[in-house]
Predict the 3D structure of the following.
Amino acid sequence: MAVANGPLLLAYDYRVMSFVTDPYPIRILLLGSSDATGRDIKACMASEPLASEVAQVQSLDEALSRLRVGRYDLILLGPLNDETLALAQWQAIEQKFPDHAPFVVIYDDPVVVDAAVLMRRGIGDCLRTNQLASLPAVAADAISRWRVRRDQHKTTAELARAMRRAAELSDLLQLRIEEERQAIAREVHDDIGGSLAAVKFDLAWMSRHCKDSEMLSHVQMALELLDHAVQASQRIILDLRPPLLDQGLVTAIDWLGRNFGQRTKVAVQFEHGDDLPSLPDNIQLVVYRTAQEALTNITKYAQCRQVRLALRFEQQVLTLVVGDDGTGLPEDALDKPRAFGLKGLVERAESVGGSLRVESEWGKGTTLTLTIPLRKPLRPARRTVLRRPSPGVLRGREPST
């Protein structure tokens, strides 16, 4: 509640300067005052350098009508001695015009009207009738605070829109990346894979018909190098576009774990339920890429002896857990400028309405948890029977190229 004292008037003089430059006068809507009080308020505002126009109405309906057709910078209510009435009229205007101008309540009896209660409820300020001389200061202060809040809300809304646009751009980039990966995988399979297969047939023919032992030795070495090239191409294809997802998410994650265990000699435990539903392709891909990136990070940094994978579906929530008993992450791992891998996983999770949590303790390992709520019930998937992939697949090779 404002009072007419020295510091407040100094603050008022400072604030008034910002309103003098406005291209229009401050418009005030006065609700419920008597003609005499209205004249006093108009005279008080007219005596200040703050240019103002005061429109006086006697009923709430008149005030609502004015607010529908005109812009006001301040709403004055009173004088009154009914706290409930003040709140009721403020709430009625708030309901019809959420972005209305700030309120200032003028009251007679501080025993009946608790100014602190009104201001806590959202009313801009309160002023006793015997302090009308300070009304210009109170008006300038209320309008200034309201404009600051309005600008803050505007900035927050713009920031939210920018974040939504950034998220949409991130989703689009992820989509384009996956499309490009699929295209590259097809090119590697069709062109490079086909060429390698043709070369292998020719070398095999040469090894069968070559009589020179030295030449035959070179052909055998070439075949071995070619086998490595075929394995590398198949590994690239599996990384770019995991065909095992066509057999179900459980099968794909199981293959990731087995392949990781064979390459790193780290023990891998995979736990999964039997009631996993049939999932949309984008969700399956997010879960697969999250597990793939987590295992890649473990290979690079964890120095662990055991890895635990878990895939659960409970109460319409899909959860992937990847944990290790390695060195753990430093506390600022996510804040580092080059922490693109983890940040990318967070964005992937958010793109399907999920979230990613990373828990780590230095020297005791790291646990990554991906949680994706599914908004509508999904049909059960066909029961997946895990089969141990062939040795060629475990090495990154498919039966045929």
Remarks:
- Residues 245-394 form a domain with the Heat Shock Protein 90 fold (CATH 3.30.565.10).
- The first strand starts at residue 26 and ends at 31.
